[in-house]
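To whoever is on call:

I kicked off a structure prediction for a single chain this morning and the downstream step that reads the tokens threw a length-mismatch warning. I double-checked the sequence; it's 127 residues and nothing unusual in it as far as I can see. Pasting both halves so you can look.
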Amino acid sequence: MQRGSNRVSVRRDDEMKHELQGLIRSGHPTRVEEWHDPEPAADDDPPVMTGPIPSPGTGGEAEAVRFEFARRLGRTTFPAERGTVLRALEERHAPDRLIALAEDLPPDRTYHTVGEVVSALGLHPGA
């Protein structure tokens, strides 16, 4: 039996997931009555949270990639070599674009932080 700090019951959690399936699959609200629609994202939500990982050469790429790596890897992954980073990303169902970036890491290094991983990819925050 799970004893977490979840505010809703397991049944209600499953109901909420079911209610959002149409929205997630179609990309637009699927309700007939507008008042049933889930609330849209706020205007001040960071685009990194909802958008894809930027392509190389676009502004803010290093920060976005660093954020995504940190979100997927956490602190417990480090220190790690390339293979460990790849395994952790696959276990945590990281996006294919993030795994493809990690495949470009030099295999002969040990990485102690997410910053070292991003730097090894040739991305520099603030550039």
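Update from on-call: the warning came from a stale cache, not from the record. Cleared it. Sanity check on the structure: The beta strands are 80-81, 110-111.
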